[in-house]
What we know:
Elements: E1 5-9, E2 12-16, E3 22-27, E4 29-33, E5 38-42, E6 45-49, E7 55-60
Amino acid sequence: MAIATAVQRGSWVYVFDEAGRQLTTISGDLHGFTGSSVSVKRGNWIYVFDEHGHQQHCYSC
């Protein structure tokens, strides 16, 4: 499943597919997203997650 959109709601990021189905929810501030990943900022770190909410990378800001 590809990521169609990611939406910030309070301190959570909600990730949806093309059909509008929720794929996952991730805590933090939305930094950006692509068709296959979501970037979330927590403090001085950027975390990259796949469409299932599994962490793929972590970068220091």
